[in-house]
Amino acid sequence: MNMDKWGENLSDKKVSKTVIKRLPRYYRYLSELIKDGVERISSSELSDKMQVTASQIRQDLNNFGGFGQQGYGYNVKYLQCKIGAILGLNQEKNMIIIGAGNLGKALSNYSGFEKHGFKTLALFDIDESKVDTKRPIPIYSMDKLDDFLKENTVNIAAITVPKDYAADTAKVIVDLGIKGIWNFAQVDLDPLLPDDVVVQNVHLIESLMELSYNLEH
Amino acid sequence: MNMDKWGENLSDKKVSKTVIKRLPRYYRYLSELIKDGVERISSSELSDKMQVTASQIRQDLNNFGGFGQQGYGYNVKYLQCKIGAILGLNQEKNMIIIGAGNLGKALSNYSGFEKHGFKTLALFDIDESKVDTKRPIPIYSMDKLDDFLKENTVNIAAITVPKDYAADTAKVIVDLGIKGIWNFAQVDLDPLLPDDVVVQNVHLIESLMELSYNLEH
Known about the structure:
homodimer
């Protein structure tokens, strides 16, 4: 029984990046199990479903205190809720998108983010001709960003501007106090920004190149 | 001098996933160096730029034969060309996009893929109302896919359909002979498809969750 240890463990343990990368996938599978009406699951059943070894699952979850009970397995709802909390999904996060091109607009139109607590408030662009305040999620001029951030709490800024503008854009929004950057530009922003800023990259072209490599070999 | 070993080494060595993941980033940095007119670079200079240790760089590149010369470093153009070849970028690859929603259209409008040899030929959608053959990259009905693939060589299909349709869509296109899947749907397609099909995932919501985790901790 180590169901309640997670509170203490969370703060004093450094969890590896690869474990963190797997958490959203646990969360997804557990959410599907809930939808299918499954109430509890053993690590070996979860292992079959997720194609990860049962010992890997136990090890991963032990980083946060375990959550399982010998001979019972995992309570699906409880585990999903805990992993959700570890991922910070129990607190809604507000997002803005800098760059109202095709990708920025596509992201703003995607409904899946809000379902998980990520709410897109607005897009911003330096191109005045893109300004459109009649959309469900409005597009404002970059000039308005400062005022907007005074009136709204924003946790995450997605950067979908062209590569050559990404670094300057990131510096501007970090100076305005944003701590989370979801970077779609083909640039490594981390070395340019203060340590307390979190950068998460989605490098589409690099993903395609990896696919290309695997097709060739 | 081990500049010419890569040809032999490529086929008989299993390269780790993490090394493969780093190759596109090497390629990007080398391309920038070329643009800046740099002709040769030492692994320690490259290391400073990329924030990877010099020994990591040497180790990574040794997987493919090395490419460097003691006391000289790397010839930037040569190395970029070789890594490009390893990534399969010297052969143009044709792509189609299944799902002409916001994300599918955004991907089709992005010019960066073609620059690296990934050419989007067409989009397909089951929704007839989305058909638009007057766009630069046309949108066809899914009914036309079979004929299209008889007339065109397609290496990669990007899947941008809603989650619940992704598995069936993937099976259809794999049955039609496509070997490379660039999957944007929130589903693990690999276990459902034959071993010779390569799946590369872009899970946007999982990327956001990872960002959320790092913001919280």
